Amino acid sequence: MTDQTTPTPQTTQTTQTTQTTPTTPTTQPAESRHPFSPEMKECPYPHYEAWRSEAPLVWSDEVGAWLVTSYPVAKGILDDNQRFSSKNSVFGGPQVEHPEFPSMINRDEPDHRKLRALVSKAFTPRTIEGAWEPRINEYIQELLGAVEQRGDGRLEVVGDLAYPLPVQMIAEIIGIPPSMHAQFKHWSNLIVQDIGRVPEHGYESLEEVAEAVGEQAPPRTQQERTPEEMRAEFEEYARRVQAGEEEPSLFMYFYMQIFDRQQNPRDDLMTRLVEAEVDGEHLTNNELVAFLVLLLVAGNETTTNLISHALRKLSQDLELQRQVRADRSLIRPLMEEALRWESPIQGFYRRALEDVEVEGVHVKEGDALLILYGAANHDPEKFEAPEEFRLDRFAAQTGSRDHLAFGYGIHFCLGANLARLEAGRAIEGVLDRWSEFTAITPQDEIEWWDTPFFRGPIAFEIALKQ
After folding, report:
1. Whole-number Å distance between alpha carbons of 348 and 302
2. For residues 185 and 250, what is the distance between their CA atoms, to the nearest angstrom?
């Protein structure tokens, strides 16, 4: 790993395009190129369009990375794991290496293939949907029934439905006991609020990652420690938490649960992950914790924001609502368009493994690139009139949809089907229970979560008509 100075954007011509980009990072336009600024949270799409009008990728001093706003360029980079690394995917920065946090989302081949193969043994769409669809439907009815029983004729989309549904379900799927669900939700909030808030060159260790999300660094987890030693450490930790001497730690909690499943297998996802085996290999404790943290964050935020955006749009466009209410097969293209129109995850990082020309721009080895899914999904070269919400964009697509909301290539979201299942059932549940619903919160008064990668409202109220 070599030291990397701030890259100097360069312009070259190719037979395909001629792009003009700033000659040095100091000759920036008056407008900031900060993808996580408060102004971006209000509405990022005009900013994306302005950056894309300059070039398919532009340099940002604010985050020390190239901002990729073009659909074909974004898709090409996501699909090119030979020249672009994912090791800085969520932690950012050009130099970060974090072998202590071996999550699939920030691993390259062949490690990624091994991890995904092991995880896929336990976490498959068919297994999850077959086993959990009835419980998902049941919990949706519990949530909506509580709203109806409250009797105020209002649904706060995020707090009443979109947030508790995926958090509760992922907790149950993993095998978290009900007594820990409230703490689990708190941990999810902490991580989501700060993931992506990186120093200039990213995090160097798991201790820095833990500190950034309000966590204590996890204990040593070397495999050579005896079960007795691990049990003693976990018992001491539990005593300190109970005595108020230490704050509960998500990392430590997962290590304790993994140790328990190794000694006392159960019928839950965590046990299946512990027991998963490919070519005689199992997931290490660190790999298990990393995947469980990924499930907690990605499994919650994507679904929460998808439900919020879809119901917000339906409440603001009653003709659209009438169409979907009359033909429930339109729920699927509604969700796909919502994913494109307001991508729940706005982007993740990559790092160049070698010098490479990208649409006439010279990207140097080690440069960080922020692949802006939200910008790519609003590229007019790919999606006509991208600011418009159109059900017909994905109506004819029965296989893979061509938006980038769930990523692309080897890192395509493993939980995409679960997110679609939960969101689809939630939208259908609201349509079934009420004859009409309309927006109460004005669009220009929506407060958005101040989180770097994720885009979703803090709250959004709709009025319900029986």
Report:
1. 14
2. 11
**110: preceding bond cis by omega (within 30 degrees):** yes
> How many angstroms separate the CA atoms of 115 and 105, rounded?
10
Q: Quick one: which of 389, 438, 375, 275 has its CA closest to 73?
A: 375
Q: Position 11: which residue type? A: T
Sign of CA dihedral 350, 351, 357, 362: positive
> Whole-angstrom Cα distance, residue 125 to residue 158?
25
The three-class DSSP label of residue 68 is: strand
Structure tokens at 61: 């001093």
> Which residues does 266 contact at the CB level (< 8 Å), separation at least 6?
175
pLDDT digits (tens, 9 = 90+) for 428-449: 999 999 999 999 999 999 999 8
269, 252, 259: which is closest to 228 by C-alpha? 259
202-219 pLDDT, tens digit per residue, is 444 445 555 544 454 444
Radius of gyration of the chain from its Cα atoms, rounded to whole angstroms = 23
Q: Where do we find the tokens 């429930």?
A: 328
Residue with tokens 């466009």: 317
Distance CA 328, CA 431 (A): 9
Q: Is 183 helix (H, G, I), strand (E, B) or coil?
A: helix
Domain architecture of the chain: domains with CATH? 38-465 (1.10.630.10)
Side chain identity at 395, as an amino acid letter? Answer: A
Take residue 125 and report the two structure tokens written for it.
């769409």
Q: By the 8 A CB rule, do 155 and 161 touch?
A: yes
Is the CB of residue 114 less than 8 Å from the CB of residue 129? no
Helix (H, G, I), strand (E, B) or coil at 239: helix
Considering the entire predicted model, what is its pTM? 0.85
> Measured over all CA atoms, what is the biggest interatomic distance in the chain, rounded to whole angstroms?
69
* Interval 304-340: pLDDT, tens: 999 999 999 999 999 999 999 999 999 999 999 999 9
Residue 8 confidence (pLDDT): 45
C-alpha–C-alpha distance, residues 415 and 189, integer Å: 19
